[in-house]
Amino acid sequence: MEKANVKSNEIGRRLVKGPRQSARNQAATGDKYATGYQKIQTSTNPARKKEGRHPNKQAMLNILQLNICGLKNKKIELAKVMTSNNIHIAVLQESLHKTTNVHLTGYTAYPCTCENCRGIITYIRNDLIADCEHQTQTDDTDIQKATIWYGEQKYTIYNIYSPPTSICQIDSLHETMYNRTIIAGDFNGHSPQWGYTDTNGTGKYLEELHGSTNLVITQTPTSTPTLLHRAHNTLSRPDLTIVSSDIEPCCTVQVMPDIGSDHKPILTTIQTRHDRAPQQRIARWNFQKANWKGFRVETEQLLSKINLNEIKDVDNLEQKFSSIILTASKHHIPRGNINKYKPFWNKDINRVVTERKEARNKAETEPTRNNKTAYNRATARAKLVIGSAKREKWHETCATLDLRKDGRRAWKILENLSGKKHKTNPKPMTDCKTKEQQSEKLNKHFANINKSRTDKLKDRALMKELKMREKNEKEIKLNLIDENVTKQTDLYELKRTAERTIDSYPQDWIHIYTDGSAFKATVNAGYGVLMCFPDGSSKELYSACGETCSNYEAELKGIQAALLTLNETFQRNPSLATHTVLFTDSKAALESLETTQNSSETLDILLEIKSILNKHPITLVCQWIPSHINLPGNEKADRLAKKGAMQEQPLVKTTYQTAKRIIRQNFKEEWMNQWARGTTGRSVYKYQNTVKLHDPIYLLQRKEQCAIFRLRTQHIPLNFHLNRFNAEHTPLCPLCDDSLETVEHTLFQCPNLNQQRQHFLPMRPDLQTALYSTSAQLQRTAAFFFMALGKRAQAQRLLD
What we know:
Helix 6 runs antiparallel to helix 7 (about 315-330), helix 8 packs antiparallel against helix 9 (about 370-400) and helix 14 packs parallel to helix 16. The chain is about 45% helix and about 15% strand. It starts with a helix and ends with a helix. By secondary structure, it is an alpha+beta fold. This is RNase H type-1 domain-containing protein.
């Protein structure tokens, strides 16, 4: 019956697919129908092999899992295993990584950093796009979730360690169907399904997971045990590999020899669906080992044979010259590939590791006390030899390092030791929402991995040329025609210099004035633009910028609107394209256009400027002018900005800087209201009812600042103030003994201080002129008070 069914199925397939297929292809088709996965066969036709230099090889994803029982003394063997087996991702448990350096060359380490860390760590090869995150758990199970992209497919790998005393519950597994998922780790789960005689809580959970989902436990009672329990000399399988059913048919699990841990590593190999051609390594010329004397002799001989009279075409001459250079180079300059990275290894390490493997195999097959002791000794001997070999290699490296000529090598060693240039695998572009962000991220990644020094030099030269060209065509001026004149200059001189600056630009240029306005500098903003053309015509622009928009942003939007209108005007009528000057009273906006770290707002302005300058051979100048000094163009733009602020405000996103400014302003306003309505500090509020950012007290020394501040608040150790805390303390002045010793009495009224008062205080002193005036006067007031304290102390001693 079975043969008949197979034959009928073959006839049905033959009717659909046409001619008879070979048995090999029929088996492949049957596999596809049975498992939903078709293994790709490599053609054995020799004619097809000759078509390409290298036949395509099917790609394999190699995953290593291991409870390493401490990473520190096993890094060399781990690196050897990962390199020789082409491991893409390694999941380790109980690594004790907090006490050791976790770096492995060629891999990005993701150690667990949670508070309840069980020492799990995931290594992902640097050439894979991947990400790794910690999974929060309600129990003691430690879990990491790694997502990698390999062979145009997305794989999810879980690294799990469950302590023997806890029951494993993977909180993040809620589905019943999983695709390309691998769960590997030390579960410490017991179940007869993988060879235990008993069942614990973790084993029951894994059995339920196996029965209710498409996840398959690859270990069976006949699988090779991974743990040799040294105390009881027993073998068990706490390390499990669980895969989803879609990749189970193309997945092989192999237990590897130990690397010094009680657990053996498990290598999981997944055959991917796509063919991948092997990478061709680029051969490079080794100029340091070249025979330059022979190269010179051969090139001279070959060049002497060329008859220049017979060659009239320059291209033929160039080809002949290039062939001579290449011919001589092949004979005298060696060429080859740079050796791939190989972890440190030598014959002694190989010998003791082999002895340890043999001792473990003997202890597993014959679990006697002598074999157990021999295995422990072999493990200790391998640890000792590896440690001494590492020290000897380091001493040899330092001894052969000549700093007079090996400076580059020394710096490379220091950089490797510091970890500054350790490469990491690229992260997926999940945070890039637009194509522009994706392109920017790809460009940055390519620039980091690109090793072409020639291209970098060309890029730098081109960037320098573009910057020089842009600087010549676009000019930003932050000062007036007289750089010594600033906003702190006399108002008349400031206005006269600003008018001279505006008049310095020819009348046949386009003059543009921009301004921004916002209520309380943060809300209901608007911009205004006045464009004056050489023919006497003008154009006015104004618009609202948003309910929550700062003055600075409104200024930038006004500049952008002016440039956009200018560009459109030039496109409609190219004859109007001429040199342009843009006047603005926002120095901060112009400074932002000069910085190298541009925001999104300034970047749009720079792109608009670049568009104008690329299309039209003109000069564009951005000139700062002061505000509110009755400059006609600036005043007109200011009125237009206020008109724009009165328009209906659009709903726009608030920037971080604006939100921060609004919060700061609200807090300041609330504090000012509390300061005005309060009942304390009235002696200061009478003379300073607002915050003074440039209070002259800030220019004094610490001792002088304390004295002036205490005099202002009248919280100072004078008798009248001390009497408030101790009624028995006299409030009278110790110098005159007939008046209360208050701040006003000490500064202005005490007759025994008249001589010092005439020298240090103003002609008609009061609290305003003595405590709230210039820094020089505050210094003199502080000096007067210190002298008064000295005389007061002398008088107090006489009274005592």
